[in-house]
Amino acid sequence: MGVGRRMKKQGPPEALSEEHFAKLKRKAGLPVDVPTEATAEAPKKKKRKTAKETAHRKSNGAAAAAAAPAAVPKKSALKSSNGVKSAKEISPATNGKAKGKKAARPLFDDMSDDEVELGDEFGDSDLEGGSSGEDGPTLGDDFLGSDDDDDSVVDSDDGYSGGKRKPMWSDDEDESDMEEKLTAANIVGLSRKLDQQMEEEAAADKAELAESAMQTNIHGDKPKVLADDDDDDDDELAAKTNALLAPDLQLLRTRITETIRVLDDFANLHQEGRSRAEYTAQLLKDICAYYGYSEYLAEKLYNLFTPREAFAFFEANESARPVVIRTNTLRTNRRELAQALINRGVTLEPVGKWSKVGLQIFETTVPLGATPEYLAGHYILQAASSFLPCMALDPQMNERVLDMAAAPGGKTTYLAAMMKNTGFIVANDPNKARSKGLIGNIHRLGASNVIVSNYDAREFPKPMGGFDRVLLDAPCSGTGVIAKDPSVKTNKTQLDFMQLPHTQKQLILAAIDSASHSSKTGGFIVYSTCSVTVEENEEVVQYALRKRPNVRLVDTTIPFGKEGFTSYRGKKFDPSMSLTRRYYPHSYNVDGFFVAKLQKIGPTPAKTAAASEPRGKRDTAPEVVDKTPIAADEGDEPAAKDDDFGGWDDEEDEEYMEKGKRNAMRRRGLDPKSAGKKKPKKASK
Ligand SMILES: C[S@@+](CC[C@H](N)C(=O)[O-])C[C@H]1O[C@@H](n2cnc3c(N)ncnc32)[C@H](O)[C@@H]1O
């Protein structure tokens, strides 16, 4: 089945909402506050274990796992006074449908004693020596690259060596069957997790309600957010909220929500004589104080959204995204992996219908970076959003693929699995330290069609060109992954947002020039970043469209995501920019990400890379000379190579900054030559 068709059946991941948890509860056959058709249906489909069975299973490992799960009690029997019962409180009852149709099979009922023994043999005590310690899943992901330090490389050229031969491709997986089994096997863990999440949500809602009630009592319906010059109370509030050392966070938060309320309904709620700009300025100040952003970055991120959505974005950056692992289909399939991990005490479920290889981890009693399955390369810890560029690139078997910025290899190894280890992938990264992690992952996951190189990718296609598909997962500011790396809140400056896009623009042209427009199967380029800023995304793609008329934007085929901006703060982008996709932590509960897919529809401009197309691959048609070649500054020395976010080169950047200043002056109608001149002294009186 082609990916395109499969995608149509898939839905987006859940947004962060009460409904998400309610849905999961329904799925697990648990009661939710609002009864719906789905709720009524759920108990018929799913079965759950009693608390007794849970305890037994926990203490007795697989023996207990083999016990048949108890049927789901009727909804009325489950409902407690507050509408939510914990797994412990639920009493067993029989389920008509299960009896009538087919008795639900426990997940491990066909497991031999040998397999049970295996589970015990590699139990917790053996795993505690693993690098992750006792704190659960702490090993790196594909962005931060803590896998860099992973020296647990298992050479796996022999392929999967787990005794009997196992099915390799999860394409064969029966999705609904698997979900049912997984849900049954995980039911107690999931219920516990969901109860906990519901409790947290309820507490947060209560606090929110109390907060707004407090406001309503104090100020009536028109919130008083901005201070009057002559008001002592206001001075006190200002002193409390603006105090450098210990701002009153509760007050700040209240003022943030109230200001948003005013901005939402400005005509009715604003204080007499106060402008929208004043409210916005106050809100930004409060956001900086409350969440700890630099003013510069807070404003940049705020401007992407409506005030309410911006608040949701800043909030989402305060909590971690779900831990997700990607099944390595070169070694196993998702069902087998899930069974193995559940057997070790991991609570999980499929990440969503949009992926056949992702598993979301809810709880684990073992360090995920040290299980035998991890060491044998059956999975990699990989953020869900990192799947997306690979899905968009959609590499085919036997193709030639370039991954321009590949370390630590989360995406490279996914591409290799998609290609079933056929064809070849050039996995490039100039950062040698990060490349160690890349090589480690390639070996551990058994990706045998990968060649590693260490070029500054701006040099491509000189070393090699003519690829069927090119992935550019560009170095970026990381504004989409602030939850993972909060230092981004303060360490990104205006200079970064000039220098990074500059590098990204050079890289995207190199990516385009490295792809073969005459590829029989491809000619596609995917550009992605884990940043949400327009400078690093739409502006870079727009630049590529302008400089390379031989490419066009095409559908990413990812079944969810917000459309890229076609205009932004007065800037107009190509209408096809709506084909690009944006992902936000608050809307999809994934890292912030951007994905654009380009197709090369004509020959590479002669002056740049055509000459490096492999022999026999060169197009016989006359070459089109690009009338808009890369600007003169694009041939400069590459930036320093040790920076994950694009490196640094004082000389280049100084020159670049100077150029920027001169252009800015020109735009303001000033003479750039006067830049260095001293200001004339004021005439003395
Ligand atoms: C977002 S990370 C890539 C993550 C990787 N694609 C994965 O999935 O594991 C960006 C990478 O770009 C690399 N990089 C920085 N400057 C580069 C350049 N000029 N050419 C190629 N890669 C570069 C960094 O070393 C870093 O590993």
Automatic annotation (TrEMBL):
The active site is at 530 (nucleophile). The keyword Nucleotide-binding does not apply. Keywords: Methyltransferase, Nucleus, Ribosome biogenesis, RNA-binding, S-adenosyl-L-methionine, Transferase. Its main location: nucleus. Residues 110-127, 144-158, 645-656 have a biased composition (Acidic residues). Residues 26-180, 605-685 are annotated as: Disordered. Coiled coil: none annotated. GO terms for biological process: assembly of large subunit precursor of preribosome; maturation of LSU-rRNA from tricistronic rRNA transcript (SSU-rRNA, 5.8S rRNA, LSU-rRNA); rRNA base methylation. It holds the Pfam family Methyltr_RsmB-F. It is found in: Nucleus, Nucleolus. Residues 614-626 have a biased composition (Basic and acidic residues). The keyword RNA-binding applies. GO terms for cellular component: nucleolus; preribosome, large subunit precursor. Residues 675-685 have a biased composition (Basic residues). S-adenosyl-L-methionine binds at residues 405-411, 429, 456, 473. GO terms for molecular function: RNA binding; rRNA (cytosine-C5-)-methyltransferase activity. Residues 313-601 form the SAM-dependent MTase RsmB/NOP-type domain. Belongs to the class I-like SAM-binding methyltransferase superfamily. RsmB/NOP family. NCBIfam families: nop2p. This is Nucleolar protein 2. It comes from Hapsidospora chrysogenum (strain ATCC 11550 / CBS 779.69 / DSM 880 / IAM 14645 / JCM 23072 / IMI 49137). The lineage of its organism: Eukaryota, Fungi, Dikarya, Ascomycota, Pezizomycotina.
